[in-house]
TrEMBL record:
Compartmental location: Cell membrane
Organism per entry: Martelella radicis
Main localisation: membrane
Biological processes, Gene Ontology terms: succinate transport
Domain Threonine/serine exporter-like N-terminal: 35-270
Name used for this protein in its record: Uncharacterized membrane protein YjjP (DUF1212 family)
Keyword vocabulary terms for this entry: Cell membrane, Membrane, Transmembrane, Transmembrane helix
Membrane topology qualifier: Multi-pass membrane protein
A Pfam family assignment: ThrE_2
One GO cellular component, as annotated: plasma membrane
UniProt family annotation: Belongs to the ThrE exporter (TC 2.A.79) family.
GO molecular function: transmembrane transporter activity
TM stretches of this protein: 142-159, 165-183, 190-209, 253-276, 288-308, 340-356, 368-391, 411-433
Amino acid sequence: MTETGTPLPETGGLHQDSVAELLMRQRTLERAALVALEAGRILMETGAKSAVVREGVRKVALGLGVKTADIRVGFASISTTVGDGVCSSTHMIGVGHHGVNMRINHRVREICAETGRGGLTPDAVEQKLAAATKTTPKHHKLLNVFAAGLACAAFGRLLGADAPAFVTTLVASMIGQYIRLVLLERHYNAFVVTATVAFAAAVLSGIGAMAMGSTMIDTSMSAAVLMLVPGVPSMNAQTDIMEGFPTLGSARFVTVAMILVFITLGVGAAHIVLGGGLQDAIKSTPNIVHHAFFGAVAAAGFGVLFNFGYRNLGWAALAGALALAVRTFCMLNGWPLEAASFAAAVAVALVVELSYNTPFPVRRVGNAIAVAGCIPMVPGSAAAHWIIGLLEITVQPLEKSDMMLAATTSAGLQVIFTVGAIGAGLTMVSSTFRRPEFPTRDHED
């Protein structure tokens, strides 16, 4: 952390008590700013959008006695200048890896809201924040691994994978998620981890699918890496830009693009190892019930990865089922993927927002439930095929390159427009209802 303070006036004409009072004011501001920034750092590192981080820092700072708080939220740091009308103090704190942990995130929101109502000391708030990161429960590693595998296998079914491909995707993605957790615990570079896990999961899934006689080898390989697709960061990036924070949103988009590149690197290497040319058979068109069921499974699986509480996993599953049911219904009636995804996102966001003033516990993490429900609609497989297609264009004969370029461009535009449609649907509804991001009273977890 770094800090600067306003210079004290010359002490020659001041009483000693006045100097001591100014020093006390300065220390009070410093303490409040540092505690507020710590709350903002935890919010950022657990998946909060820019507006939530800013409001959390502001609530803590004002609740600890400052009169003004100017806040800047960047991708790698957060800074604030606080003042009490006489003195001011500027501080900055670094931000680490941007992850997703909804139980810690919403516990810190509760602490921010409680602090904003006054009555807490900086030491008390600091202790609460430390307890939130250390004692908030998280799912067992084995459950996390199984949930990732189940979510990817459900994605595979949504993409039309057959039964053998479902099994191989489940096993391969579980192994991939375990490797991912081990490497991240040892603090390896996140992008290198992404490429490594993508390669391992894709190779294992492809080998298994071929051994079991699957006709959906390519789908199995693509589905096995979808737990790596940064769904929440991509939604936050778009939301930040729509809410007036383009700098942070752009930085998040760059990170999302880099993750997709390294996923593609891993999957592309797996294709090379397995000989390439892995084509799927013609996929059948599943019905609404099929899509709703596996959308629910995928959303619940990602709920575990996001560390939802157990009671909220059911709400995430219902949101996923609703999203895929609405999207499939629209597509069966001739809607394009982008429009159907927008309608599904609006439907999920509306249901979540309307439930806010009901006794249902979905109000506890409403926006996060909506995002989890829409994650199964993120076209991660199309994104991988898009970048792989761009790489393959360079080695194609000239007479075939135009056709491949057209197909690759189409896939890329579909990814961009679909993700944009989902984010727009969620953000437009939430901004219309203007539901508070922080609880008005404390909740039990």
